[in-house]
Amino acid sequence: xxxxxxxxxxxxxxxxxxxxxxxxxxxxxxxxxxxxxxxxxxxxxxxxxxxxxxxxxxxxxxxxxxxxxxxxxxxxxxxxxxxxxxxxxxxxxxxxxxxxxxxxxxxxxxxxxxxxxxxxxxxxxxxxxxxxxxxxxxxxxxxxxxxxxxxxxxxxxxxxxxxxxxxxxxxxxxxxxxxxxxxxxxxxxxxxxxxxxxxxxxxxxxxxxxxxxxxxxxxxxxxxxxxxxxxxxxxxxxxxxxxxxxxxxxxxxxxxxxxxxxxxxxxxxxxxxxxxxxxxxxxxxxxxxxxxxxxxxxxxxxxxxxxxxxxxxxxxxxxxxxxxxxxxxxxxxxxxxxxxxxxx
Length: 344
Ligand code: ADP
Ligand code: MG
What we know:
Layout: E1 8-10, H1 13-17, E2 25-32, E3 35-42, H2 46-67, H3 75-80, E4 87-88, H4 91-106, H5 116-121, H6 134-142, E5 150-152, E6 155-157, H7 170-184, E7 189-193, E8 198-202, E9 211-217, E10 220-230, E11 233-239, E12 244-247, E13 250-253, E14 256-257, E15 262-263, E16 268-275, H8 278-291, H9 293-302, E17 309-314, E18 319-322, E19 329-331, E20 340-343
Parallel strand pairs: 18-20
Antiparallel strand pairs: 1-2, 2-3, 3-7, 4-6, 5-6, 7-8, 8-11, 9-10, 10-19, 11-16, 12-13, 14-15, 16-17, 17-18
Helix pairs in contact: 2-7, 7-8, 8-9
Adenosine-5'-diphosphate (ADP) binds at residues 111-113, 115, 119, 124, 165, 167-168, 196, 238, 242-243, 254-256, 258, 282, 285-286, 290.
């Protein structure tokens, strides 16, 4: 994550000229959390929409500064430097940590926010990739344990040598916070694309139709194999294709199995989660990717309280979709002949 927003590009003519034309969308692109975010707001009053835009950019910037694992003074960096002593963090950070830890617990550690030293060892943080030795991986895996994170009030203590990172859930958290802000304003329709396949639809499209969002084909990341209709709903995808490197003919991706500290190979190429909560989408897409199809499908059956549906794409190209997506999921043009197995 970067400490500052690199660019904030306002492309709405109505906003730039200050004129009051109803229902002109305000679109802006901003760089935060290591990714490009595209926000589109459809408001009736351009002044109000502009005010919401200001609030959202400020919130994205604040979240980015608080949650960045590399920023010197971020809450997360201070926790990681804490050497076992409790570190006071902002109430928002403590709340997110608590939600993230709950997702770690419910997924029984398939999601583990303390995987950061392993992510670093593979070189994913700086792009200097390497394959750690078996011994190194065993030592890294032994130190991955979300249960060792102590959160009391707004104080967080982490055993010396461990480090945490909210990379797997931060965009989802941002999505929920921004969506709440948009809903609290007069804006009834917005699309918040938080980059790298985390998206929140607020309301429906201005005409009343649901948003139609493409799901990337992991075998051809430039194209969409399916379309999901979203209305007041979030969607997030995790996949090996998003960040990886190749060495000696083998591919190593950025989603790690906390049990081995090595890239999670459970037979999946991507997992997409649809839920009212973007945090659930972000956290569970990573976790289900680690679990694999059978365990992931069982997790879906066992956890109706999490209110999510999922689309699994196996490494062999097979497509699976949970029953609750029927009517909202369709294959994209060019993929109509593909079989979709509905999970019950
Ligand atoms: P992205 O950040 O590309 O959208 P994810 O949401 O799936 O993808 O998060 C993956 C990131 O989370 C990795 O880049 C790494 O920093 C971290 N990570 C990798 N494996 C795990 C895991 N099992 N649990 C928690 N975080 C992980
Ligand atoms: Mg994630």
